Amino acid sequence: MTVQTLTDSGIFTLKTPGDPSRSIEKVFCCDLLSIAMSKAPENGAWVTVMGNKNTIAVASLTDISCIILAEGIQFSQEDLNCAENEGIAVFSTSLPIFEAALKVQEILS
Known about the structure:
The chain is α/β, with parallel strands linked by helices.
């Protein structure tokens, strides 16, 4: 699956496009940035409620394909600009983390 596939699914609201051709191979759920730094999979879709600039830094460091902010959490415009500059796709949803992750997994399967 690619970021574009996730965008086209219409399940989540796209906030920054990142690289639409970027591969998504796995879904990852974590709200502790220190754990995400060591365990987030390259080319993963990271579902979290951590809506701050540090999340973008960790996503960049771990080479995550996209961030999905769950539970209605939103990045500030400044943070969205940062994600765009880093080439990280950002989506948002009001779904709980687990349900959002299941939606991604359904597309991956």
